[in-house]
Amino acid sequence: MGKKYIFLVGYFFYLEDDTYMKYWQALQRIQNSCSCPFCTLTPPVIIEETSTMIVTPSRAPYNPYHIMIVSKRHVALLSELTQKESKELFVLIGKWNGLLHTSHKNVLTYLKD
Length: 113
Hints:
Layout: E1 3-8, E2 11-16, H1 17-33, E3 48-49, E4 53-57, E5 67-71, H2 83-101
């Protein structure tokens, strides 16, 4: 069928059809089995929560203030977020960027599918 392209960490990779299918099948298994590391989070590791998003410290932080904003609903791509989810995501990004910028000048926002 051809090559599929996936964007990961600033690089485009192509996957042959069988590898592409294995990737999406593995993603489906994770979603169906609820082995998602974010599904089992509870306070105090949730530092903020909206109806569609959670804010949590990163499990593998690049720095001591590395946080993640995660959708409560399993989605593979940012484009799959609903309008409400997208709005809540960007409100949280704005809020936490502002909070982090008060004490840290070099805050980087990184959106990743």
